[in-house]
Write a structure and sequence with these properties.
With 147 residues, the chain is mostly beta strands. It has no helices and eleven strands. It is globular and about 35 Å long.
Length: 147
C-alpha cells in the first residue's frame, strides 16, 4: 500500500516481527536519531506480532546494544496500530503532532506494550490500548506506566 506524491502510504503486516538494527538513522519530523519513523502522509500503518514461535507477541524490536540509542517517532499521520510489544529498550519513543499509537481493536488478544528508555508525548501525540488488563501489572486497568 505504498504510493508517493501525496497519495496513500501505508503498511499492513500481520504475524511478523520487525527487527530494527538502527545502524542508519533519519531525522523524522524534526526528531533526530530515529530508526523507526511514521510521519505525515502515512495514513495506514498496522503491525500485528506473531502469535507463536520465537518472537511471539513481539511486533517491533529496536536496537538492543546499549550503545545504540536510536529511537522511534510517530509524528502526524493517521493512527498507527501495533498489536504486541513495541520494544525500543535504549531509545526514546516519541509521539507528537497528532502521532498516535494504539493496539488494533479486535486483535487476537495481543495488547500494545510500549517499551522505551523514555516515552515522549507532546503536541497532540497519544497512545492507548483497548485491552482490559495488563498481565502482571493490574487487572482491570487499560493503561499503566511502569518504570
Amino acid at each position: 500500500n505504498v504510493t508517493c506524491g501525496g497519495q496513500s502510504v501505508g503498511l499492513e503486516a500481520n504475524g511478523v516481527t520487525f527487527v530494527i538494527g538502527g545502524k542508519s538513522t533519519v531525522n523524522c519530523a524534526g526528531t533526530a536519531n530515529t530508526a523507526f519513523c511514521v510521519a505525515n502522509g502515512y495514513n495506514s500503518v498496522s503491525i500485528t506480532a506473531p502469535s507463536s514461535g520465537n518472537t511471539e507477541d513481539l511486533a517491533v524490536i529496536g536496537p538492543t546494544p546499549t550503545t545504540n540509542t536510536a529511537g522511534a517517532t510517530f509524528a502526524g499521520g493517521a493512527a498507527a496500530t501495533v498489536s504486541g510489544a513495541f520494544y525500543f529498550p535504549n531509545g526514546v519513543v516519541s509521539l507528537s503532532g497528532a502521532g498516535k499509537l494504539q493496539n488494533a481493536q479486535g486483535s487476537t488478544g495481543q495488547c500494545l506494550t510500549l517499551i522505551g528508555s523514555a516515552i515522549d508525548v507532546t503536541q497532540g501525540g497519544s497512545s492507548g490500548t483497548t485491552c482490559t488488563g495488563i498481565a502482571g501489572v493490574n487487572t482491570g486497568v487499560n493503561v499503566a506506566l511502569v518504570q
